[in-house]
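Priority: medium. Attachment 1 of 2:
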């Protein structure tokens, strides 16, 4: 899902750079308002964990592979704004040091995965877990549903951006991206539930409750 350079035209990546910058600025403002002492080291731990986990790929189908996105996982512990910042930091490091995703496309990648995937995924998590009463079972089910949804939604936005840039027609880009990532989303859901379930057993106080 990391878009390389050359896949998006300037009329696509330039506005997304501005939207992402504005979105991250809002996140910074929000985080400073709700920042707690335990959140600072937890943000570092989550960023490091997501970075390491994204380096590990699991096979999907047809020779393709996927990896953890981690936006919902971070949001369950940190809330949506801090989680978006963590994921943005991971994407920036991957782009600048490991050339995973293009520099011009970095705004689009942050928008898709850090802002859209994390924020929308967190909304789904809150709604789903809220319906189930915010019990441990509700948190786990909400995490699974939201994790899957965040991956599919982020990949769908990626497909629309590729179509807007003339890289691939929507009838090709959307089924390819959404279809493969619907399967990758299952892996996302499983990993998210495993981590959240473990933390619920040993440190339930780390779950974000606001």
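Attachment 2 of 2:
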């Amino acid at each position: 899902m990391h878009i390389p350079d050359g896949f998006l035209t300037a009329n696509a990546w330039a506005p997304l750079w501005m939207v992402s910058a504005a979105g991250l600025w809002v996140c910074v403002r929000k985080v400073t308002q709700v920042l707690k002492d335990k959140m600072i080291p937890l943000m570092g731990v989550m960023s490091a964990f997501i970075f390491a986990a994204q380096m590990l790929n699991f096979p999907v189908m047809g020779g393709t592979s996927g990896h953890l996105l981690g936006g919902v996982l971070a949001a369950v512990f940190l809330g949506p704004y801090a989680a978006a910042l963590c994921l943005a930091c991971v994407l920036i490091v991957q782009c600048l040091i490991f050339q995973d995703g293009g520099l011009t496309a970095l705004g689009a990648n942050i928008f898709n995965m850090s802002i859209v995937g994390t924020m929308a995924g967190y909304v789904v998590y809150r709604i789903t877990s809220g319906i189930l009463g915010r019990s441990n079972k509700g948190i786990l089910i909400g995490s699974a549903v939201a994790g899957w949804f965040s991956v599919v939604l982020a990949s769908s936005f990626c497909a629309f951006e590729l179509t807007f840039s003339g890289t691939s027609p929507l009838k090709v880009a959307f089924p390819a991206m959404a279809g493969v990532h619907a399967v990758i989303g299952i892996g996302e859901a499983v990993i998210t539930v495993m981590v959240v379930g473990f933390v619920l057993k040993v440190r339930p106080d780390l779950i974000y409750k606001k």
